[in-house]
Design a protein that fits this description.
311 residues; seven-stranded mixed beta sheet; 13 helices; 14 strands
């Protein structure tokens, strides 16, 4: 090859290389979601956890992903909550993978697109929800713990990262177990057992349960003129009343169809108005006093009155 031709060939190769580099786009200028964690000192424990759980390859793929990234302080709080050391957590690969995948969505969801108040399904399979509060966006996890979103829309080549101040945990209790853990539902728990509905409400669901408090049951007993023992002994009535409080599907507060007839497992319907008051089959009113208590197989809303179907 003559000297002049050699120089022309070398110049052409260099130009082609430069054009190739320019054409590669943002992938070279932006890290992946894993790279974001590895490059930010706030996420040193998260970066270690992702590697220990063998998720670095998954989260470096095309995606897109949305990662809710807990800070090192969030992991420190979690270790105290669980009574574990960091080494113990990183060694428990099954737990680590479950927890970390619960922080990842299989789509790119920037702050502007967050479905506020609605169930958000994670790669782990469980759900959490995000609410807008005066102090900013707050995540409620499957165990009804809350985390604040400290920063949003940290862009990556394969998705987006939002920063949170608490490690999220997926639900570990069914609707029945959740009610059993709350003292204000002790009569409801007795009633569910007496009606033989425990296995049904521990099933996969999901279900939405409108759960009357102990005070609501006390009002019902006075209204019907019966004792608690008499009510619990009437299995047919009890089953009819309790299944009237259960709606198929997970219906969070933001998704309640206001003004429309809502069909229950019992078969009859009730309606909910804009003030979150229920009108039951007998025209009686019940107030929803608390909403969106999350469980592994559904959600609980709290009632101040036991609702009744048509006779």
């Amino acid at each position: 090859m003559r000297k002049t031709s050699w120089w022309r060939w070398l110049a052409a190769v260099c130009v082609a290389g430069l054009l190739s580099a320019c054409g590669s786009g943002s992938d070279d200028s932006e890290p992946t979601v894993v790279g974001v964690a590895q490059g930010d000192p706030r996420f040193s424990v998260l970066a270690e956890a992702v590697v220990a759980a063998d998720l670095a390859g998954t989260l470096s793929a095309t995606g897109p992903f949305t990662v809710f990234a807990p800070t090192d302080d969030a992991f420190t709080a979690l270790l105290a909550e669980l009574g574990m050391t960091k080494q113990q957590l990183l060694a428990d690969k099954a737990l680590l993978r479950t927890v970390l995948q619960y922080h990842v969505l299989g789509a790119q969801v920037p702050k502007a697109s967050v479905p506020v108040g609605k169930a958000i399904t994670t790669l782990q399979g469980g759900i959490f929800k995000i609410d807008s509060t005066p102090g900013g966006l707050v995540v409620t996890d499957g165990r009804n713990r809350q985390a604040r979103i400290l920063a949003t829309d940290v862009m990556a080549s394969n998705g987006v990262v939002h920063v949170i101040d608490k490690v999220l945990l997926p639900a570990n209790r069914t609707i029945v177990a959740t009610a059993q853990a709350l003292p204000d539902f002790s009569i409801l728990v007795e009633a569910v057992a007496a009606a033989g509905l425990v296995d049904a409400l521990n099933g996969a669901g999901p279900y939405t349960v409108f759960a009357p408090t102990n005070a609501a049951f006390a009002k019902l007993l006075a209204e019907l003129g019966v004792s608690k023992e008499q009510l619990l002994a009437n299995k047919a009535l009890l089953t009819q009343v309790l299944t009237y409080h259960v709606v198929p599907g997970r219906v969070l507060k933001a998704e309640v169809p206001v003004g429309a007839a809502i069909t229950t497992l019992q078969g009859q319907t009730f309606t909910v108005d804009g003030s979150l008051a229920i009108t039951d089959g007998r025209g009686r009113k019940a107030g929803i006093t608390a909403t969106d208590v999350l469980a592994s197989n559904g959600v609980i809303h709290v009632l101040d009155t036991v609702i009744l179907p048509k006779p």
